[in-house]
Amino acid sequence: MRQFDRRLAYHFDWLLLALTLTIVGIGVTTIYSATAAHEKGSFVGNPLVVRQLAFSAAGFVGLVFTVFFDYRRVERYAYVVYALGVVLLTLVPFIGSVGGGARRWINLGLFSVQPSELIKICLVIALARYFHRARATGDCGLVDVLPAFVLLGVPAALILAQPDLGTVGVLAIACVSVLFFAGLRMRVFVLLGAVGGAVVPLLWGHLKPYQQQRVLTFLSPEMDPLGAGYHVIQSKIAIGSGLFWGKGFLQGTQNKLNFLPEQHTDFIFSVFAEEWGYVGSLVLLALYAAFIIRGLQIASRAKDRFGALLVFGIVSIVFWQAVINVGMTTGVLPVVGIPLPFFSYGGSSLTVLMVATGLIINVNMRRFLF
Amino acid sequence: MNVLGARREVPSEFRRRLSIALGVVGVLFGLTVVRLWHLQISEGDHYGFLSENNRIRLKRVRATRGTIVDRRGQVLVDNRPSFDLVLVPEDTNNVPRTLAAVARVLGTDAGSFEAAVTAARNRPAFEEVVLFRDLDWESIAKIETHQFELPGVSVQVGPRRTYPLGHAAAHLLGYVGEVNQQELSARKGYHMGDLIGKAGAERYWESELRGLDGGQQVEVDAVGRKLRVLSEVDEVPGNTLVLSLDRDLQLVAEDAMGDRDGAIVALDARNGEVLAMVSRPAFDPNVFARGIKGAEWNAMVQDRKHPLNSKAVQGTYPPGSTFKVIMAAAALEEGVITPFTSIFCGGGIWFGNRTFRCWRKGGHGSVNLHEALVRSCDVFFYQVGQRLGVDAIAEYSHRFGLGAPSGITLENESGGIIPSSAWKRQRFGEPWYPGETLSVAIGQGYVTSTPLQLANMIAAVANGGTVYRPQFVKRVETADGSLVFEQGPERTRELGFKQSTLLQIRQALSDVVNSDRGTGSNSRLTTIEVGGKTGTAQASKAGGERSKQHGWSREKRDHAWFVAFAPVSAPEIAIAVLAEHAGEHGGTVAAPIARKVLARYFGLPDEDEAVMREAAVVPVDEDDMPLMVAALTGGGR
User: Fold this and answer.
1) In this complex, is the C-beta atom of B17 within 8 Å of any C-beta atom belonging to chain A?
2) Contact B4 A370 (CB under 8 A)
3) ipTM score
4) Fewer Cβ atoms within 10 Å of its own Cβ: the N or the C terminal residue of chain B?
5) What domains, with CATH codes, occur in chain B?
6) Residue closest to A136 by CA, chosen among B52, B483, B6
7) A370 — pLDDT class (breaks 50, 70, 90)
8) Chain A interface test: which of B17, B54, B233 (most A C-beta within 10 Å)
9) What is the Cα–Cα distance from B277 to B70, expressed in whole angstroms?
């Protein structure tokens, strides 16, 4: 690595860092509120809070570390990073541990990692590299799409087996987003959409009724009135009862009930919205919007296509997860188990996203350097 | 640093796509904001109302446990409604006052209610606490009329297990109880307060009987009373177990046992189906269904007669002379004797350093195998045992299913012990002494088996050499009667003997019952030819003849055995009767019990008196072998 350029410091994006840390901070306090009824101890005595703080500290260290080297090194090792992510995913069925009905975690003793969170960023890196090298200019046709689909397909198949349909959906939508940003011709988009639109009903017709039923309950478990359906109702009650100003910190009542097994992970937004009301929800959404808009700006100003695609991919992951998660908790989207980025309890997701934020800052810093 | 292909520009390429992306972000965030406005502002008051006191709740609807019926569909285990008094502590702002009010309404003391609430303090929020089970009608009426003084209190209907047969077949049917902490963590889908099979069929067939809980999403009022059901999932009732048991035969068997301790196992000799299974002393499973009290439980566990243990499948006893059936088969198959080999019994033999005596002091004179079985001559089988050696005896015993659990679908089945030289080396680190083989030859020494194993053994003799896995569940049906699966007969093994071997044994066993020399004439039926073998098993070293005196403590008295099958020409039923610590002989105690069961099976009147008169010849003192026991303990007499 060449000598650290002092210009870099001037272009360090403090805004993005501040947005990230603010969202993480609100997330940790909400995790405390969501679990205070069940976990004994004060704020610093709450094991979930402590773990989340530890992971955000680790994520911060990762973020700083990521900033210090040139992101084009990431490009060089893009496929290696991707391959490592896939290898970890492959290990899950053999050495993984089960939680919530699916085998997703690899236990490392002190903590466990969730390779499906890791692979989201790995995939974006690999796609950015592929479209950077394959097409110097933004005009991709059908042929360029196939390798991208292979890159998507391998981890998607592995995650589908866990099973975790939600994460597969995020991978797919991130892949499509990168394709779009890389300049896939509109015609190809339309063609792919048409093919998809034609194949799905065809496949659907071939399924037996009980298989269709299975797919339906998997896609929208809220049809189960005793399971997710009940969770969604309680989530809507929690959010709705927050009214304009909210019930106040630690004053939420819905989260005291055992209605959600995931009130500190997938349904953390309902806890937040109950306590902070419409105002708080808008502020939180504004923070996400600011992060995303800032990210898009950085993507468009990046010095090279790799940087631009990388940043766009990361931002799209944050964006889609935020929208899907809030849509899920407000009862407009199926309950598919997508965490709220930077906010939900979960070490792998948080750490990976913070490191990814480091990459965005990295790309922004080096746009003047070469 | 010229690796980067696209060093020209970038912005221009992405500008249009960036604005599309921003558009997508704007639209979706906008929709989210609208959705939140809808929930938190437009509908906010409605949701705010629902959030008070958890207005929308899930109520679990417990699945009705499957019933158990006999081979003719007669009910053995059933459910009846039970009205339980429950409280949701969150629905009252003053729990002690509410409990006091309940006590006042019912005219009882609030202490037990408070204890119930305290015991359930770790339950999830809004889960009910059962204050009292099985309210009577009067109490229900009182609670209903005072319900507005009793916030959070309600009466809940739930199925309660009943066992109309009471003590009869209690060990086979088993009982249910509330899940304990261990079971909760080990099995999925159980909640605090759920019932689970704890013993017998209830336990082994739990997954069939349990069914699938349903639930209701209900809206409740401020004190937790159900306003309406929003949506629900129906419960799936548990499956019905159709047993091979014959309820009437079971009751006759229970009756025949009188107040004796012991066990009866009756099998269909043709397929291993259990027709009746008695174990005494028994318990009343209804006591468990209503919730057993600590003192009652302790009394049962500490009872020296172990009423909770199934003597039929868990109790192991020396088989005594019934073991001679196996000895006879082994001897004929191994060729150490022929049916014509004759051995002189002078009342005992000298072996090693001491005398092994025959139960009949004067001896039996010269006997062949047939006579030795009919008159249960010990000396004959001492000789046969010496010729076979312990390992051959063990091999044949194993073939008949002794020394290993039979595989009946009940927990904790015992396998009994069949000693061999290898077994003794492993167990005691000692070689096998030839003298020990003599004890084994007459079913004493280390040999033990369960009543079920002996019934299965005699069934194999009866049916021509097939050992079946004993089964008591014929089929499983859903609650509305469609078949889930049918349990066909399962062969454990074929004995693979010459047909003549078992034929000769069956003829001898027929004479045990039907000749006047035989020891089992007390089981004789008028129109059906019964074959059987008596046995008297020493329960303690100091047992023997003296134990008949009632001054002896119960534990030291001998066990009385009788194994039988009928009809001899085409056997249908096989039976083993054990009278524990009877202090008398198999022929006098166990055989009459077997006769009553067999008579019922063949639809004959109970010929008690008639047969007693006819079979008056049974020499009470000379029935079986207990004298040799004294010889053993006498050590070298």
Assistant:
1) yes
2) yes
3) 0.91
4) N
5) 57-243 (3.90.1310.10), 247-281+309-634 (3.40.710.10)
6) B6
7) low
8) B17
9) 12
